[in-house]
From TrEMBL:
GO terms for molecular function: oxidoreductase activity. It comes from Candidatus Lucifugimonas marina. It comes from the Bacteria. Residues 10-409 form the Amine oxidase domain. This is FAD-dependent oxidoreductase.
Amino acid sequence: MKIGIIGAGIAGLAAAYDLSTKGHKVTVYEAAPFIGGQASTIPVGGAPLERGYHHLFTNDKAILDLMDDLGIGEAMKWYPSRVGTYTSGKVYKTTTALDLLRFGAIPFLDRIKLGLFALKVGRIKDWRCLEDETADYWLRERLGGKAYEKVWAPLLKGKFGRYFDQIGMPWFWSKIQTRFASRQGIRGREMLGYPDGSFDTILDKLEADIRSRDGKIHISTPVEKVEVVDGVAKALIAKSPDGEVIREEVDTILSTVPSFSFPDLVELPDDYKKRLTDVHYLAAVVVVLELDQPLTSFYWMNIADPDVPFLGLIEHTNMLPKEWYGGRNLLYLTNYLDRNDDVYKMSEAELLDLYLPHLTKFNPKFDRSWIKKVHYNALSAAQPIIGTNYSKAIPDHRTPVKKLYLANTTQIYPEDRGTNYSIRMGRELAQMIISDEQQSWSNWK
């Protein structure tokens, strides 16, 4: 079977790998000049670093299984995480359960309530019972008090902006489940995974294995149209880096483009198209600073303060050795924003002018002279807004066009989008495509 895949993100590559190992001829088309999508890297301090912060949790089974299949399982290493929370003008250590008891930003009884509430959510096994309610409503009604006001309300608003009160409760449930599973020992210390050599270790091995089986990966080659004949996907129309139009006939097509882009490639029935366009995406803006000294002692800083103009502060080299990056301390400043937001439209220099004055809140000694280099990245489709009862509205992977499949982050549910779940989805789609082809062949016979 000849299969065309639109997008060389981690889902598309995982699908291409499994399909090629089963003897199918795979061609991957990627619009960007690199593979890996949100897991792709840039050179920083002489080593590859993800454009957006990446780490794994101990229950991220899909990516761990894939690494084992690729023969690189030993590359995954585990590190203790150090978490802080900034609220009420102060940084608090919130790494362990004991830290939570010392969390002076809220009254002692609210600290107890916050911890017990997380345990309660962690014990819920069926997320379907949560689908009718938003995370904001569920938290206000069942947690409330200063624990909601000082912690979860600003975190929800910081991540989702004006959409904060539309997010379905299964999103919150999945976050709690993931973090509980990644905590080890009686102290509940969170362990996070990161592969030696960055996520390029996985991407490079995927690419090599796909090519070794006569698969092809074309970068800087956007697909412009899916050709359909009598309701069946027949060919891909793409444009090469030099502007040449490429038409490739295939037996099956898997697209991994965002939902809002998919209708531009192919004509779809109104009801399916509505399922795609009803999902709104937030964009992401990420600034990576190379510093000559650390800003804090934490890896992950939760920002629970509306006066801080960025959502997250992730100090990569507070978990990974700075020696990997020429001795530089690496700091991510990240934001999820509506694509119409003025901050999303800012230049790198404008963002720095907006962000940097706030870094003294985390370290009063911070000075702009600490910055030795800046890296900037923006992504237009980073975080889908998934509301209530989404299981009834999620677009099917099997599109109304025969032999045309869709796999993107709006179809990861109830979990939130992420590298592990994208890999799981890509491998599931590979199996779905193979099974459908076998069934079709069986019916024909």
